[in-house]
Amino acid sequence: MTDSNALLQCAEQLLAAHGADDETVRRTVANRAYYGAYHACRDAVHRLQLPYFAEVSGGSHAREYKAMEACRAHHCAHPERVRALAYRCQRVLRPLRVHADYELVRAFSRDDMDQTLTHARQVTAGIATISQPLRETQQKARNTCGPSADQTRRT
């Protein structure tokens, strides 16, 4: 099964195999890198059980980023990180991907590709460091901080 890291690795392997001289390669690398970051965000939205927004203009991508922007302390330990990653995806990465995929009359430079890869790597790494849902984190803390009430009663 393919995951977000595989998409980002595909972008990096494509660049390593073909170089950045061909604009089509640069655009394709940017596309795969963006989708690696997007799917990492999408996974985080589900893992953190963030709110679902049915009516968001901009489609499914905007809906995922809107959910991330709604992240608060009761969802995870570092909601500000989640919101910052959403901002980066929505305001930096997505416009680069739209440029790569749809604005073919405008050149897509090596710098555009490099920016996309850099931001996608940072978003993917950032998502990986976001803790589990706060409920799970609190449950694990309870389980590791001495015996539970049930264990105490048994002894």
Explain the overall architecture.
This is HEPN domain-containing protein. There is one protein chain. The protein is an all-alpha fold. The chain has a single domain (4-133), classed as Up-down Bundle (Four Helix Bundle (Hemerythrin (Met), subunit A)). Helix content is 72%, strand content 0%. The longest helix is centred in the first third of the chain and has 25 residues, at 23-47. The chain is globular and about 45 Å long. It starts with a helix and ends with a helix. Mean pLDDT is 87; it is low at 139-155.
The percentage of residues in β strands lies in under 5%
Binned, the helix content reads over 70%
Number of helices: 7
Q: Tell me the name of the CATH class.
A: Mainly Alpha
Structural class: mainly alpha
Question: How would you sum up the major sheet?
Answer: none
CATH fold call: Four Helix Bundle (Hemerythrin (Met), subunit A)
Unreliable residue runs: 139-155
Mean pLDDT metric: 87
Give the SSE string. Answer: HHHHHHH
Give the count of structural domains. Answer: 1
Write the layout of secondary structure elements.
Layout: H1 4-18, H2 23-47, H3 59-69, H4 79-102, H5 110-129, H6 134-144, H7 149-154
Helix pairs in contact: 1-2, 1-5, 2-3, 2-4, 2-5, 3-4, 4-5
